[in-house]
Write a structure and sequence with these properties.
- The structure is a single chain.
- Helices cover 43% and strands 20% of the residues.
- By secondary structure, it is an alpha+beta fold.
- The protein has 2 domains: 202 residues, 2-Layer Sandwich (Cytochrome Bc1 Complex, Chain A, domain 1), CATH 3.30.830; 187 residues, Cytochrome Bc1 Complex, Chain A, domain 1 (2-Layer Sandwich), CATH 3.30.830.10.
- The strands form 2 sheets. It has a 6-stranded mixed β-sheet, sandwiched between helices. Strands 7, 8, 9, 10, 11 and 12 form a 6-stranded mixed β-sheet that branches.
- Helix 1 crosses helix 7, helix 9 packs across helix 13 and helix 9 packs across helix 16.
């Protein structure tokens, strides 16, 4: 990976000599955690509005320019960043670069389009409320991280309904500044692309820094919480504990530990909870880490009548240190293998860099590999003792009969 600077914008290039495509992302390091409460969801709203037309493109030609050659154009909003990205045949990069620049810096925000997009976002909001796993995870994060970091990225119904085109325009002007912009290129990269970037980016004007990031959240343990949804047959359960942040050296044994716990059909959870007991169809673990702190989550979905047995078995599994130690090599080897598999995929490498830059990290995949290789069994054991043993917060959503999870504390 090479690093360049053009008009105060950092550019990261990842060449793949045999590729015939190029993936490009414009990353703006502003996300939902930067927003004031009264504008919750405005970063996501701006991301949507960017596709409704810009200074040089109407909403159809914007997408057609990329898609007509078989390319893809998309975007996402996270807690710390917003990204606009495309993948196209390398001969079409010049036009695609112009499209990405326009989407990022020159959306129009007309009142008419704002009202149309508001309807779409409200439908997306309703869909997230209807989906039990989305509702469960949003409730979990908002409860254990109360405040800006826990707030749903899409915002709240009342703020989505009130955000105006002028709010969008002003927030965009204030927060889409050059020092907070990163560009990532992966694929058939050549020196001509830097010249294209210099040409495209030269017109952009520097503005003042936008809204600062609030202090990192503190995990607030809660009593078991259950949302009744009688239109569901299964109970969806999530267990959560605080973990270290990305700035800690303990994150590397934790990556190994999380992989051993809940990644793949050979993982501890899949083998012990699904394959041996038949309690669930789906069970996994995942981590979400900021620089300073994070959360580990275990998820499962099962029938209400299996809840008591499930919690009993889950306590047995999570408290079995020897079981975890037996899976050390699986967790380490699988995680290293997954990193290796990213390296032959330009879009995957771009995603890896986006994730790191969003959290102020310049770690390369080679550096991550070396740190994982250096994780010892003792490091892994300490991670188990620190991040698995202890009190877990319990969340659930499902039919009335599932409310019995409220009597289940998870103490490992």
């Amino acid at each position: 990976m090479e690093r360049h600077t053009v008009n105060e914008i950092e550019i990261f290039t990842i060449p793949f000599d045999k590729a015939r495509t190029i993936s490009c992302a414009f990353l703006i390091k502003k996300g939902s955690a930067h927003e004031p409460e009264e504008l919750a969801g405005i970063s996501h709203f701006i991301e949507h509005m960017a596709f409704r037309g810009t200074k040089s493109y109407d909403h159809f030609s914007l997408k057609y320019t990329v898609e007509v050659v078989g390319g893809t154009l998309n975007a996402f909003t996270d807690k710390l960043a917003t990204a606009y990205y495309a993948k196209v045949p390398e001969f079409h990069f010049g036009k695609t670069l112009n499209v990405l620049k326009e989407i990022t810096f020159y959306p129009i925000f007309s009142p008419e389009d704002t009202e149309i997009e508001r309807k779409i976002i409200l439908e997306e909001y309703k869909m997230s409320q209807d989906d039990p796993t989305s509702k469960l995870f949003d409730t979990l994060v908002e409860t254990v991280w109360p405040g800006p970091y826990g707030r749903p990225i899409i915002g709240r119904k009342e703020t989505i309904e009130k955000i105006s085109s002028e709010d969008l325009r002003e927030y965009h002007r204030k927060n889409y500044n050059l020092p907070d912009t990163k560009i990532i290129l992966a694929g058939k990269v050549n020196d001509d692309y830097l010249s294209l970037l210099e040409k495209e980016l030269s017109e952009l004007e520097r503005n003042k820094p936008g809204d600062p990031l609030p202090p990192p959240p503190s995990f607030e343990h809660t009593e078991p919480r259950y949302i009744v949804r009688n239109d569901l047959e299964q109970v969806h359960i999530a267990l959560a504990r605080p973990i270290c942040g990305r700035n800690s050296e303990d994150i590397y044994p934790l990556y190994v530990l999380n992989t051993a716990l809940g990644s793949g059909m050979s993982s501890i959870l899949f083998h012990e909870i699904r394959e041996k007991e038949g309690f669930v169809y789906d069970v996994f673990s995942q981590i979400y880490a900021l620089k300073e702190t994070g959360i580990i989550i275990v998820y499962a979905a099962l029938s209400p009548e299996k809840i008591d047995e499930f919690f009993s078995k889950m306590k047995e599994v999570l408290s079995n240190e020897s079981l975890f130690m037996k899976n050390f090599e699986y967790g380490k080897t699988r995680y290293l293998g997954k990193l290796d598999m990213v390296t032959d995929n330009p879009a995957g490498m771009m995603s890896f860099v986006i994730d790191n830059l969003s959290h102020d990290s310049l770690e390369t995949i080679e550096e991550r590999v070396e740190r994982i290789k250096n994780v010892s069994k003792e490091d892994y054991r300490r991670a188990y003792e620190r991040f698995i043993a202890g009190n877990w917060s319990v969340f659930g959503i499902g039919p009335e009969s599932g409310k019995i999870i409220e009597k289940h504390e998870m103490i490992v």
